[in-house]
Amino acid sequence: MPTASLQHYGESRHDWTRQQVLDLFALPFNDLLFTAQQVHRVHFDANRVQVSTLCSIKTGACPEDCAYCPQSARYDTGLEREKLMKVEKVLEEARAAKASGATRFCMGAAWRSPKKKDMPYVTQMVREVKALGMETCMTLGMLNDDQAQELADAGLDYYNHNLDTSPEYYGEIITTRTYQDRLETLGRVRAAGMKVCAGGIIGMGEGEKDRAGLLMQLANLPDHPESVPINMLVKVAGTPLEEERDLDPFEFIRCIAVARIMMPKSHVRLSAGREAMSDEMQAMAFLAGANSIFYGEKLLTTANPEANKDMQLFQRLGIQPEEYQQYADEAAVEAELAAQITEQQNDPFFYDAAK
Ligand code: SF4
């Protein structure tokens, strides 16, 4: 690929066309990974990965019909339903997550949207987890303006609400809420001043044009989501997608690389489906620009072998977990980023794609 065509990659853009995105997907694999890695190094330390932990604060019995989800009440997956977790129990899990090296604690509830009576509990969770010195994220379904504001006032850092797939393929996966509903919740989260975590799932039978459509939707939002989880479908028995064909791992890695190029300053997260990936596939995902992972909730047990396995992989790859830094203001963030970039540019292995 001619070097000149790399010039504009690395800049934040919000005007991607589907053809431009498909052109990225069509690059030879090595060119795509090389480009993504260069873009990655413009904005991030390539050897640091942010670690989040996910805690299910209310499990199962969800009225929605997301075809991939074992928590939907419509599918018989054998999942045990649990009511909203007590605040003290959530804090116990958050402390364990922090001790395992997580800097962000994500709390998820299987709701269509939170009810008025739930809000005092979830906002208390946000305040108390923050007091432990962790970043907070919640995913509670659709929000109205007041709920978004309440969460922001409690100090919630991130709100997760995924778009899942392209607008065209969406109807194959969910019928109980619209794409527009999702975009409106994302808009409310932004308007209330919180950071956005939004991504999708790969391997649900969608085509490349749908993957391109999903990434186009995310990248063409007025602001890129700060976190972009790219999930690989976990085929759960009892859900409509249990028989879906296996995804070619290279298709998944391509998606990570294209997300990195299109949203150069976002944290691109490897989340669901990571357990099914080999160490080599995860390493390739980091090379393609993934720089955030989830420790699953089951990893919060005492033995925690999976977490140890993650740390061993980090060690084998020379990766450090990203530290949580609380900045007083945006100027401090810019200054820190500029310092990191200068440091990278002095690195003899750094190649400036913009020149
Ligand atoms: S809204 Fe969330 S919890 Fe409910 S079925 Fe969809 S993905 Fe599952």
SSE arrangement:
Blueprint: H1 18-25, H2 29-43, E1 48-58, H3 87-99, E2 104-109, H4 119-131, E3 135-139, H5 145-154, E4 158-160, H6 179-191, E5 195-197, E6 200-202, H7 208-219, E7 227-232, H8 249-262, E8 267-270, H9 279-287, E9 292-295, H10 305-317, E10 320-321, H11 330-345
Helix pairs in contact: 1-7, 2-8, 3-4, 4-5, 5-6, 7-8, 8-9
This protein binds iron/sulfur cluster.
EC number: 2.8.1.6
Protein name: Biotin synthase
Catalytic activity: (4R,5S)-dethiobiotin + (sulfur carrier)-SH + 2 reduced [2Fe-2S]-[ferredoxin] + 2 S-adenosyl-L-methionine = (sulfur carrier)-H + biotin + 2 5'-deoxyadenosine + 2 L-methionine + 2 oxidized [2Fe-2S]-[ferredoxin]
Describe the model.
- By secondary structure, the chain is α/β, with parallel strands linked by helices.
- The chain has one domain (14-323, 332-345): TIM Barrel (Alpha-Beta Barrel), CATH 3.20.20.
- The protein has 11 helices and 10 strands.
- The protein has helices spanning 18-25, 29-43, 87-99, 119-131, 145-154, 179-191, 208-219, 249-262, 279-287, 305-317, 330-345, and strands at 48-58, 104-109, 135-139, 158-160, 195-197, 200-202, 227-232, 267-270, 292-295, 320-321.
- The chain is globular, with a radius of gyration of 19 Å.
- The two termini are 15 Å apart.
- The structure holds iron/sulfur cluster (SF4).
- Iron/sulfur cluster binds next to loops.
